[in-house]
Each structure stands twice: as structure tokens, then as C-alpha cells.
């Protein structure tokens, strides 16, 4: 199939990167105010680390709803496509489509049943209704405009087949601890408030807290949500959580810097030296077992009424 010429300039625009503080960012994402994390090799490696952590958290399950073998899956904001590749490999008869605003992290040799589309999820979906057995959306809160969320969830509903499911996973990047030792004076708390306040009000980094309501309003039924304590390091006395925390240590170390670099130093003009000190202290605290720090991780599933 030949690609219409008129789409080419847009494709080029999506391909450009800009370098900032030694990291590569999508030029389109920064200029359009879409997404502010890097899209380079280091981020690909971090996303793989995060995928491995989530595999431990979810006991190697990729799909949570109780559904028969899916035939078509949409992965929104697929990133380096770790989830999409595994799901495509596990379901060779299923067509998987990954969408991302950035083509930079996509694998060169995906399974033959996995395709990609470069697009901004802040625009309304153009897919025909009732297209996918499962729509997956994971960790895209940094890139969905705050005002877009309700219609984003409605779009997910529209393109889900009757009887099909959505699966949404978001981490709320607000450092927490349940033992009372993490105070407002800790760098982790300052990191969280600076990061969350910088992203707001254009983005909604607290989107997970409203998700179930948006899903219900969109029409989803059998909605289930789960809040998981995702330890930043191996502080737990329980062996499973200790393994998860150990695996998550490196992911969190990287995430603290990658998520906040552009928002804090470019958007709020925090001096680089202050940023580096904040990150260094926050990393130490994330690894301090006495603080028992974690990020809340939210998981949602919902079914579109009807039969597949
Ligand atoms: C933190 S990564 C998560 C990637 C993947 N879902 C995962 O869990 O490993 C966020 C991804 O969402 C993409 N993204 C963010 N906002 C987007 C938008 N508005 N449209 C399309 N992709 C978006 C980013 O380019 C990035 O690849």
C-alpha cells in the first residue's frame, strides 16, 4: 500500500529528536507539550527494567481480565513495546497494534503480528468502533492532557468490542511510606511535589485517582481496581515484595532523573546543581530501608457490555 504524500511531513516531524542535558527527547512531544521524558537508549533500558518489575508484580501475567483468547489488541503509548511484543508472542493468532507519539524506542524486529502506528493519543481515535478485544494503556499519564482523560477513556470504550475489555495501569508518582518516617523535608517528598506541581494543570499526574469514575461514565461495567504498594527498594520483610523491591531499585533510580529532568530544570528553571543534589538525595532515600518508600501502582480493568 502506498502512503499518501500528505502524511510524510507529519511523519518527519514525529521522527526529529532534540538533545537536552545529554538526553534525547522527541521534538514533537516537547513542542506540542505532549510528553517530557527522554526517548533514547537509556530510557529503552529503563522501560525494560520497569517491564521486568511489573512482570514480577503481576506474576508474569500480561492480560488480567477473564477473557478468551484475544484476536485484536490495541496498546496505547506502547513505548519500547515490551508488553506488546510479549503479548504478540504469547498470542500468535492475535493482531496487536501499538500506538506511540514517539517512534524512537520501538523495536526493529517485532513479531509479525505486531504493528505500530505513530500518533498522539491526545487526538480523538480514528479507528472504527468495536475494533479491539482488549485495549491496554500503561503509564501514559505524563503524556495525556488533563482535559483529555474523560474523552480518552470514552475513545477506549468506543473502539473496544462489545464483551471486550480495557486494562489500564498507572503509577502515581507521589512517594509514600506507611511508617511515618518519610517527612515533607525528605528529598523524595520534595521531588514528588515539585514533579506533580510542574506537570499540573496541563497533565493530570493523579489521573489514577479518577480512573474508575471515568471508566464508569464511559460505559464500562465489571470494573475492578487494585492499589498495589510498589516498593522502591528491597525494604520489605516479605520475600516476594523484597524481590520486587530489589528489581525496582534501579528502575526508580533512573526514573527519578528521567521523569523530572525536563520538567524541573527547563520548565521551572531549577538550577542544574540543585537538581542533581535533589536527585542524588532522593535516590539515597529510595534505597534507605528504614524509610520503606513506595509509589502507589493502580490497576484497572473494565468490560464493555455485550457479547464478543
Ligand atoms: C512511561 S512510557 C510507558 C511505555 C509502555 N506503556 C510501558 O509501560 O512500558 C510512556 C510512553 O507513552 C508515550 N506517550 C505519552 N503520551 C503520549 C501521547 N499523547 N500519545 C502517544 N503516545 C504517548 C510516550 O512516548 C512513551 O513511549
UniProtKB/TrEMBL annotation:
SUPFAM superfamilies: S-adenosyl-L-methionine-dependent methyltransferases (SSF53335). It comes from the Eukaryota. This is Methyltransferase domain-containing protein. CDD domains: AdoMet_MTases. GO terms for molecular function: methyltransferase activity. Belongs to the methyltransferase superfamily. LaeA methyltransferase family. Residues 73-164 form the Methyltransferase domain. InterPro entries: Methyltransf_25, SAM-dependent_MTases_sf.
Amino acid at each position: 500500500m502506498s502512503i499518501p504524500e500528505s502524511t510524510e511531513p507529519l511523519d518527519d516531524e514525529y521522527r526529529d529528536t532534540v538533545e537536552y542535558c545529554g538526553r534525547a527527547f522527541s521534538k514533537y512531544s516537547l513542542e506540542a507539550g505532549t510528553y517530557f521524558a527522554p526517548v533514547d537508549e537509556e530510557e529503552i533500558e529503563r522501560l525494560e527494567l520497569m517491564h521486568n518489575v511489573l512482570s514480577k508484580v503481576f506474576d508474569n501475567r500480561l492480560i488480567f481480565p477473564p477473557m478468551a483468547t484475544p484476536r485484536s489488541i490495541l496498546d496505547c503509548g506502547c513505548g519500547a513495546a515490551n508488553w506488546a511484543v510479549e503479548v504478540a508472542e504469547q498470542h500468535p493468532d492475535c493482531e496487536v497494534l501499538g500506538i506511540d507519539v514517539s517512534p524512537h524506542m520501538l523495536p526493529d524486529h517485532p513479531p509479525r503480528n505486531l504493528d505500530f502506528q505513530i500518533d498522539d493519543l491526545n487526538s480523538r481515535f480514528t479507528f472504527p468502533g468495536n475494533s479491539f478485544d482488549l485495549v491496554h494503556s500503561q503509564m501514559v499519564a505524563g503524556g495525556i492532557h488533563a482535559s483529555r482523560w474523560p474523552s480518552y477513556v470514552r475513545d477506549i470504550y468506543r473502539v473496544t468490542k462489545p464483551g471486550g475489555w480495557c486494562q489500564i495501569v498507572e503509577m502515581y508518582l507521589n512517594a509514600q511510606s506507611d511508617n511515618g518516617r518519610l517527612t515533607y523535608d525528605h528529598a523524595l517528598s520534595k521531588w514528588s511535589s515539585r514533579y506533580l506541581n510542574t506537570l499540573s494543570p496541563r497533565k493530570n499526574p493523579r489521573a489514577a485517582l479518577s480512573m474508575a469514575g471515568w471508566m464508569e461514565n464511559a460505559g464500562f461495567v465489571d470494573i475492578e481496581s487494585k492499589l498495589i504498594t510498589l516498593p522502591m527498594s528491597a525494604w520489605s520483610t516479605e520475600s516476594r515484595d523484597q524481590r520486587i523491591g530489589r528489581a525496582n531499585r534501579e528502575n526508580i533510580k533512573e526514573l527519578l532523573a528521567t521523569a523530572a529532568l525536563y520538567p524541573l530544570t527547563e520548565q521551572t528553571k531549577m538550577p542544574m546543581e540543585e537538581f542533581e543534589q535533589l536527585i542524588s538525595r532522593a535516590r539515597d532515600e529510595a534505597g534507605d530501608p528504614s524509610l520503606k518508600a513506595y509509589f502507589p501502582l493502580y490497576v484497572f480493568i473494565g468490560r464493555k457490555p455485550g457479547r464478543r
